[in-house]
Design goal:
Length: about 110
């Protein structure tokens, strides 16, 4: 979270923005981040920064696994990364771990 915010602030500085109005983040279902907790933390870490008072939008990214046997990507059921075609457990998680900045809206 702090890392993403730092990136956002850095970008805002580069653009000579006065304020960050809106910040959108992509949060993977497996990232270990709880959106509600993130919203709470956001208010605290943005205090006295360009992002103070900004609107935080969270896009939740579902877990996507890959099965090398079938060469498909699939969304597993909760906690069991079982391929829907061959039943093998997938060890390759392709999406769902991200905590990243998706977009920013600045005011000049
Ligand atoms: Zn498979």
């Amino acid at each position: 979270m702090e890392q993403a915010l730092e990136l956002a602030l850095e970008y805002a500085h580069q653009q000579n923005a006065q304020k960050i109005l809106r910040l959108k983040m992509r949060i993977g279902a497996m990232s270990g981040v709880v959106p509600e907790a993130l919203e709470f933390a956001f208010d605290i870490v943005t205090r006295d920064t360009l992002a103070e008072g900004a609107i935080l939008e969270i896009e939740e990214v579902p877990v996507v696994c890959y099965c090398p046997n079938c060469n498909i990507e699939f969304q597993p059921a909760y906690l069991f990364y079982e391929c829907p075609q061959c039943g093998e457990l997938s060890s390759e998680v392709r999406k769902g771990k991200e905590i990243e900045l998706a977009s920013l809206e600045l005011s000049e």
